[in-house]
Hints:
The protein is α+β, with helices and mostly antiparallel strands and 451 residues long. 38% of the residues lie in helices and 18% in strands. The protein has helices at 2-37, 77-87, 98-101, 103-107, 131-140, 172-175, 185-188, 198-208, 241-246, 250-260, 262-271, 296-305, 314-325, 361-379, 431-448; strands at residues 46-47, 50-51, 55-57, 63-67, 71-73, 123-127, 146-152, 158-164, 217-219, 222-225, 228-231, 237-239, 279-280, 283-284, 336-341, 389-396, 405-412, 419-425. The strands form 6 sheets. It has a 5-stranded mixed sheet with strand order 5-4-3-6-15. The chain has a 5-stranded antiparallel sheet with strand order 8-7-18-17-16, sandwiched between helices. Helix 2 packs across helix 5 (131-140). It starts with a helix and ends with a helix.
Amino acid sequence: MKKITARSLICILLALLLLAGICVFTLNFVKKGTTWASYPANKHLYTDGQLSSGRILDDSGNILAQYKDGWQYSDDRDTRLSTIHAVGDPDGKIGTGALTAFAGKLTGYNVFTGSGSSISAGRDLHLTLDSELSAAAYDAMNGHDGVVGVYNYKTGKIICMVSAPAYDPKNPKDSSEKSGAFINKFISSKFAPGSTFKLVTTTAALEKKSDISDFRFRCDGSAKIGGYKVTCPEVHGTVDLEKALNQSCNGAFGTLAVDLGAGVMKGYTESTGLTSSYSINGIQTAGSTFDFSDGGKEGLAWSGIGQGKDLVNPCAMMVFCGAIANGGKAAQPQIIDHTSFIDGISTSVYRKEYTDELIKPDTASTLTEYMRTDVEKNYGQRNFPGLNICAKSGTAQVDKTKASNGWFVGFLNDEDHPLAFVCMVEEGGAGARSAGRVVNTVLQKAVNLGY
């Protein structure tokens, strides 16, 4: 009797383990079935190692790529080059492209019908990008490498995501040998931010220094900090915090960073979202990196200015600017609008989500005023006709043998056109001149298109 009882218990235990295993498998099948089905070894969905179904369209319904006896791209070269990092290539060299990252959404697979003949044509993947705007941004870069990103900080839709150098799928030999042609710099790279990082140092100063309204700094063109000289491009005279930001005074911001301390500076790079890795419909961005403890006071001063070991991901900087514009929080960035059957019936809806509070509302309001003044008194409103633009430029030295990288970041303070942007022109020199020119071209186009 004892043996029968023991064996019964073992059988019951095995049955429970089997049931648990079936439950785990079923759960994973529902959650990961699309990923399993879209694995390149599935010959029902892949031909010669390439996904063989689906179409990729932009926000206006223009076809960016479709499968017809092979993947066919737009006939317009600038459209191909400006959207290739979002669309991807059939061989998967651009790992963050839709053909690789969203293969499961293009196949038409689901847990009920599998990948049968009724959906063999795959699905339409509608991106949030505007191909006309993207082509204009690529053209405005005028042959320079770099990044242009624009998104709606209220909905999260990325309408422009350009990375250069690019890869032309119709003429791969013309571009594939360029260094970085397969990397989406907006998502996967990080760069020295230059003076754009002063927005973070300003945020920390506004929130942590109770006497910041009394702050005054005498700029003679250089400042001794920790026994080392921190230089400015020019003599700024006596500046308060707003004027220091407008004139991008290195001495003032180096002094503020040291006064705030490495711990506070580290905390604010984290709380403003710069070190976060954002998920763009499942594609993870690179997290920005900083080291405020390296190099003593001199190193801390240069880090507070945006040099030193500061490396910022362009997407994270864009979202931070969106949070300033939106009173502290911004919509999470997304690149997929929806998916549908080829006949147009929608099969998914993507809902907007928001970040945590990246900046206090009062601080965001003050920074908005500072950035608007920066345009009016420094960059010149005449260079941005009709745009209520708030911005900060940056010029980041990365190699003494080359020209500096030019940055221009900010947003439109406009309820009808709630757009945040980031632009970085490699070896472009002064950011307001190089990247600012690109931004004006892109934003004028975006507003004319109704974004």
